[in-house]
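Sample A.
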Amino acid sequence: MHIRLFALVILPIMAKHYAKLLRFNAAQVLLAKNPNMSLLDVAVKTGYYDVAHLCHDFKELNGPLPGAWAKSPQAHTSLLIDPLNN
């Protein structure tokens, strides 16, 4: 019973959260490399539904909104993993 519960309930949640983190990380990398890129372009290129969802994830996972973060020194000193170049 416990294994079935894990497979039906826990694994999908873990997979969804992991996908969210990967999408967020890709957005961070793109913004760090292109701080003047429009947030709409970032959202589209990284799989977000719209800019509001991108901003929500930034606020939840990072603190500052994406535009402010991209122009901060933190954007260029954070340890970012570029999923496209690893």
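Sample B.
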Amino acid sequence: MIDINVPHDASDSDDDPNYNAPSFCEHESSSEDSDDNPNEDEDEDEEEFVEPTYREERPIHVGRVYDTSEELKEDVSLQNLEEFRTFCSEAKHINYWRAKCVYDDVCVWHIQASQIKHTTQWKVNQYQPQHDCIPNCTCGLQESMVCSNLGIGETIW
């Protein structure tokens, strides 16, 4: 990053001899600034720390219980989005749900859950967390259009 310091001109109306020129560098701080607030470094550390999400604290696993089917499906969707994966519902019934990877001919990823009797809760009965497929990030795009762009410009190896 380029550090741009504006030199102080003595002819300015603020003839403060301790004037510090503004710096546009994000990581630069003057020693005077850090002396003013001794807890400033602690505040910066707290800002950098990111609380784990609820999903990270409670990963999907066999036996996990969700309050509703919507909560289950949202959790599965978020995980697949984070991993750039695509899945589809293979079976949907009033008290049963099974989803699989869209590349099921090469990928074993799947999840199966059912509603616990006389409740609104859903329990994961089967779960294969590992995707064997390689995401190509073209989901929703036509492969012929994506591939045709490779012929234009540089050769990609």
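B remarks: Residues 69-82 form the longest helix (14 residues). Confidence is low (pLDDT under 50) at residues 23-31, 139-157.
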